[in-house]
Amino acid sequence: MKNIFQKAYLLRIYLGYFILFTVITIAVFATTFTLTKPVHAATYSQITSQLSFGSRGENVTNLQLFLASNKDIYPEGMITGYYGPLTQAAVVRFQNQYGIDPVGRVGPITLQKINTLILGGGFGSISDISGPQFYSVNQTITSTGATFTWTTNELATAKIFYYNDWITMNEGDINSVGFGSTNGWTATNDGLARMSQQVIITGLQPNTVYHYVLVSTDLAGNVSVWNPNTTFKTK
Prior knowledge:
The protein is of the alpha+beta class. It contains four helices and eight strands. The longest helix is centred in the first third of the chain and has 31 residues, at about 1-30.
């Protein structure tokens, strides 16, 4: 009987050690190998300011979190809160992918594109396939020039094709690459994307009829034209 009690006592001790060892092992595993859920686009925060090499802070962290969701853009995926050479290289890749001048800083055009993607669900969202819409088109004509203004419903660049005869157009490919006029001349704005457009044409001949086409291109490369081959006459 005594041996039975001794064995039962030893069994309780061994069982206690086993339970204690199991608890400690689980705690160490949980501390060392913390599991995290994947970050989805809905958890990304908007970037609220322009950024460049040397920037620090929450906006840089938010930028890195977003870029890291695309391994082709930011393969290193380092979230440091510091805008160093790796982040700069990732921004250049992003700009090249979306047809933005690859300057390596988050200026107004890059900032707008990033925030648009975040709002739309991230890199995996459905691409923008609609061109900008024109509103409030106005013109001021002189004897040697013309100024056109209009607004668009999204950020876009602006240009005008014009000629003293009928303008012929090349539609380009499915992505509007190669789109343009095959004759005549082109006047542009300063190349910055905005919603209030102004294009000035100079060097015109007095008392002459010109055909023209207004063109706006959004940040996704979608092209819209307004009333192709409308005319104006200089004074």
